[in-house]
Amino acid sequence: MAPKVDYNFQLLQDCQCSACQVHNGSVCVNERTGGLKFVTCSSEPPPEDVEGLYCSMEKGSSSCTDMQTNKACMCPTCGVWRSYGLETAYFCVHGSAT
Q1: Global pTM?
Q2: Domain coordinates of the chain in residue numbers?
Q3: Residue 25 has what DSSP assignment?
Q4: Is the dihedral of CA 28, 16, 3, 1 positive or negative?
Q5: CA pair distance 76, 64, nearest whole angstrom
Q6: How far apart are CA 98 and CA 86, in angstroms?
Q7: Rounded Cα distance, 63 and 72, in Å
Q8: Distances from the Cα of 15 to the Cα of 6, 55, angstroms
């Protein structure tokens, strides 16, 4: 069983969700974020304000329902995914790593 992924500013900076075509293909996500990556924040935004780090227990899946799972998921290329030894993907749709 993979460890539970934390939610913190360092992991937000390492998160690759904003570069993912599944994430970026969502009209809902783009409307919520204005196309901006959350890592430019100077403080740790609350999980409900973030579109990313879906693998963390505090965030889980996106409230956006138009994620395009027919596109390739980038989770296996993410440093967070590797450092926590995760084995699944599409956390934006399926929810946090458990």
Answers
A1: 0.88
A2: 9-37+45-94
A3: T
A4: positive
A5: 22
A6: 9
A7: 20
A8: 12, 10
Query: Which of 63, 55, 59 has the alpha carbon at shortest distance from 96?
Result: 55
Residues making up the chain, counted from first to last: 98
Q: How far apart are CA 55 and CA 34, in angstroms?
A: 22
User: Tens digit of pLDDT for each residue in 30-69?
Assistant: 898 887 766 455 677 888 888 999 999 999 999 999 998 9
CA dihedral 96, 18, 37, 28 (to 10 degrees): -80
| 3-state class (DSSP) for residue 13 | helix
Strand partners, 56: 5
